[in-house]
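User: Fold this; tokens only.

Assistant: Input:
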Amino acid sequence: MRVYLGGDSHSATDNMTATHAAVRHLTCTVEGLRHKIFMDNFFSSQRLFNDLDRCKINLCGTVRPNRKDIPSDFGPKQQKLKRGDIRVSRGGLAALVRKDRQEIYILTNMDPPPTEGNFCDNSNCPVKPHILEWCNRHMGYGDSSDCMADSYSMSRHTFKWTTKLFFLLLDLTVLNSWILLSSCGAEYTHRDFRLLLVRNLIEEAGKSQDRLTPRLVGKPSVGATNVL
């Protein structure tokens, strides 16, 4: 885990953006192992994918068509696609664009990309290629986690990013605890688990207040004051 701080001068260089540096830092321990990494268009770029491909890391992710080093024939201005059309720019890294309600741009070096053409079923509905279904399924884990954590978020409006980060991590900790408990066979909903957790914390706080406060022995100091 690493907190993304935007233009971090300690990690970014002239040839590496802050997002590029953040991903390289997180993947440095899996180089050469052919792990599969999925990312959204906030981090993905042609240069990052080429860099990780040289480190023998498999990648797949959506990408913004106006990113630097993207193939010139890949942008929306260079092609007019109908619904169901798929265009592929091949090389060491495949750039794929698919037309549905809007254009979807993907970079990947995993499975061979689908062939070009128009792919619709008998009802004239676009058919998703395998690589897009795979990307959506794995990208959905992060989206589902954020959505579930936000359902009962403890976070409140604040101008301090450190406070917001603290409550975000607290929400994720509670969510992960519920997932672990559910994996052991417990049948609690996310909401019921949080209510049970709150009740237990209140009970423990009440027990600690019932304990007798140890009495100080000796003469109080000159600067001591009584607080009511």
